[in-house]
Amino acid sequence: MPANFEKQSYWRERFASETSFEWLASSAAFMDVLAPYLQHLANSARILHLGSGTSDLHIHLRQHGFLDVTNIDYEPLALERGQHLERNQFGDVRTKYFVGDATRLELEERYHVAIDKSTADAIACGVDDAVVSMAKGVRRCLEDNGFWVCLSYSPSRFENEHVKRIFEIEVISKVPTSKTRPTDPDIFHYCYLLRPKRQTQQSSR
């Protein structure tokens, strides 16, 4: 049976012992994909890290000079792990940590960038419209000229018409997975770039 990725109880049990884990690709590899899209941003850019879990992505963002990073996860243990990683790396905690549900985002700030590393995949394990709810919440939190980058195992993660009505969507990278044998088939993870459509382009939601 597949893991109950959409259930908070699953993550609470997992994070009780897990201190570090990277989904789909290392944060260093993900940063290589992100680099062309982050290089033109000021260090003061507000970045929303969705489903931060026990990833060290926030460490890499801080190393690149981004301090206004908000790490969101709906399991408090994940945020404790994130703060511990940051304190061990830098001696202090400068990024932000917030308990929240990525399918019910209601944040006061607007962000220049939203980033998720397979969080949309986990959310897709829930109710049918969970990814749509996530997309609508991310759109509410993004600046009009902002963007969302999502790393996913799925080649059709954002095929839902509701999502297409609010975002321009493109695959900016296909990240090859490692092979056990040279004859193994090529398998990729997909990195999506989602930019909010202008209000005049959007049909009613």
UniProtKB/TrEMBL annotation:
It comes from the Eukaryota. GO terms for biological process: methylation. CDD domains: AdoMet_MTases. SUPFAM superfamilies: S-adenosyl-L-methionine-dependent methyltransferases. This is S-adenosyl-L-methionine-dependent methyltransferase. InterPro entries: Lys/N-term_MeTrsfase_sf, SAM-dependent_MTases_sf. GO terms for molecular function: methyltransferase activity. Transmembrane segments: none annotated. Keywords: Methyltransferase, Transferase. Belongs to the methyltransferase superfamily. It comes from Chaetomidium leptoderma.
